[in-house]
Amino acid sequence: MRARARLLPLGALLVLAGGPPAAGHEGHGKIALKGGKVEGDRVYLEERARSALGLTTVVAEEAAAVETVTVPARVAVPPDARAVATVRAAGVVRSVRRSPGDEVAAGDVIAVVESPELAALAGEIRAAEAEADLAERTASRLRDLAAAAVPVLDSVEAEIHAAERRSAVDALRLKRALLAGSDPPPPEGDGARNPGHVAVRAPRAGVLLHVDLAPGAAVEPETHLAEVADLSRPWIVGEVPEDRADLVRPGARATFRPAGGGEPLAARVEAVLPTVDPLRRVLGARAVLETAPGGPPGAGGLRPGQRGSLSIVASEAAAAVFLPEAAVARSGMDRIAFLVEREGVYRRVRLAGEPPRRSRVRVRRGVYAGDRVVLAGASQLAALFPPTSFKPTAEALADAGVSLARAEEIPVEEVVVLAGRAGSPPGSLARVAGSVRGVVLEAPVRAGDAVRAGAPVAVLSSLEADLLAVEYRRVVRARPALEDLLRRALELGEGGPRRAVLARTAALLAEGSRAEALRGRLTALGVPPEDLDRVARGEGGSVRVLVPSPIAGLAAEADAAPGAVIGPDATAAVVVAPGSLWVEAVLPDLDRGRVLSALGAAGPTGLSARVRPAAGGPVLAATVRRFRPELEGPAARDVLLVELPDPGPLLRPGMSATVAVVLGTGKRGVAVPLAAVRREGSAAEVFVREGEPIRRVPVVLGRADDRLVEILRGLYPGDEVVVGGVEAVRTGIRSVR
């Protein structure tokens, strides 16, 4: 009812006009109105007419010409800001000392686990130490008697036995340190320390997100027990629809607006993921805040999982003049505004501008910063200047996004159009997993990062690898003693015990083979040579396990947090190699026979095809190489594999697309692009430019492919037809009176 009430006064003004409406059009003559008049390009309105129309005004503003893409987003904790607590010894939880939500410092005890394995290992160490002490005393006595009654070889063997016992003690202590950590177990209530206890400690400072522990619960080695996170510098993860993916780039400025209110936060896009979620049709864009979020979670700060919107700057240009969209009216294909010259006097001006964006129109000419223009009532004033012919200027056509193409006498191809989805060909996508179970020490790669072939995507600490390294250390460290014993035995000459020499030689060879086997096993697990050399020198027994990427590319997934447990059955990262893509298109039964026949006739060269990304953009040339039958599911079907040599950023794995498979070429005829034809029911029309005028031409359609449609009647070769901005031209023609 309000809209009708506002239109009635203008209708009354038009009815009472003195003379035909055309008399005042294009700046000629006058039109007398009740409460006003039209003279040339000016409208004069008295107070009662202005009040009846409800006119309001606004000042044109100059602002930065910024185009943004606003997408849903959520708050996430970066993997390197999280850490997982775990233990290496099996046992039972004795006590839990911290709760989820607690602030903790690095090393704080979260829980205490009682491990029978560690208790037994403490007893083994005490027994081994006693054996080592006895062996050292025996060797010392034999050294004193060696010059008299005891053979030299017996004395040397006693020394070797003492060294082996001391090496066994060293190995057991090292094993306990690897299982329980080098720090002593936390004290009990009476201050005593239990050697069978191991602490579950906070791996970093932050907030305890969760604690998966309860007194009496069994704990397995290298399992996820608790997680700590630093929430001060979160990520903002935007979900970009695939049809806007080409507008988002790393380095772009952005603004995050939390859901439910709150101050907008400045951010910057750090990475754009290389693949699209095939189910949700969105592309991940990771942004980092340029300032701290403003407080702890729950007290003004951001919370993990909190939703909001992320406005990403897609393009920026120099400052320009902007008007509200409501202040710009249409007259034919012209955009017009009404400048306020003085109270009650409004001058019509033609604008050079761009299509509206975010409820604003960027004006290139006609209105300048500081000009006051009509806001409410602009469309009613524009109705006083109805166009009497449709001769849009080249500038008006360009502003409306109108483009032209010529009708040509060319063949329309026989094609089959199929729905498809982009994916990575074999060898261009790698799911990287470790060769052994372990916890993450470092995760140098994040989703969106470039990855070199052979570069580690994660560095693990593995209990299995460390225990092998301890054994490798024991074997390698024992070899010098065996070599010394063999040398001394050989120095005894012909009278020496040949059987002892042969036995020690065999033992030396066996230990050498075992050392090589252990080194080969550790190398196969991913332990770097420098770590093995350090272990061989006796500098500790813990080693790193590298998880390398087999291919170069971009990381599509890489979110392992330090302390997280991964193994051969868990993916540490997904790496996608750049270059060619495959598009998989399901072949309907109706088209199966002729498509497969054409593919067989084409041979190794394949069938020509055209791929059009669902997000828009240019059509990409492709080749149908083969088909793959799918036997799983409710019905068997065939999938065509279409190869794209280098689609660039226009098409990413996971994106949807249409595939036009070219089966043959038809006869020549007059054809125009599909976009030039406007259909209404069974009727079709095109818009033809003849000099300056553009007229509507009914046409009869023939065959069509994915690009062209044949015109059987209505056009001739060389006719210029509108292909872009068809709806704008149609609206302009209908506005002519």
* Rg over CA atoms: 40 Å
Shape: elongated
Let me know the largest β-sheet.
6 strands, antiparallel, barrel
Structural class: alpha+beta
Number of helices in the DSSP assignment: 11
The fraction of residues assigned to DSSP E strands is 35-45%
Q: Write down the overall mean pLDDT.
A: 83
Helix content: 10-25%
User: How many β-strand stretches?
Assistant: 43
Low-confidence stretches: 1-29
- Spatial strand order of the main sheet: 5-14-17-16-15-18
What does this structure look like?
A hairpin with a 6-residue loop joins strand 21 and strand 22. The longest helix has 30 residues. By secondary structure, this protein is an alpha+beta fold. Helices cover 24% and strands 39% of the residues.
What is the topological layout?
Layout: H1 2-15, E1 30-33, E2 36-39, E3 42-45, H2 47-53, E4 57-59, E5 61-76, E6 82-85, E7 91-96, E8 103-104, E9 109-114, H3 116-145, H4 152-180, E10 197-201, E11 206-211, E12 218-219, E13 226-229, E14 235-241, E15 253-258, E16 265-276, E17 282-289, E18 307-324, E19 329-331, E20 334-342, E21 345-353, E22 360-365, E23 372-374, H5 378-382, H6 394-399, E24 403-406, E25 408-423, E26 429-433, E27 438-442, E28 450-451, E29 456-461, H7 463-491, H8 498-525, H9 529-536, E30 545-548, E31 553-557, E32 565-566, E33 571-576, E34 581-587, H10 589-602, E35 607-613, E36 620-630, E37 637-644, E38 656-673, E39 678-680, E40 683-689, E41 694-704, E42 708-713, E43 720-724, H11 726-734
Helix pairs in contact: 3-4, 4-7, 7-8
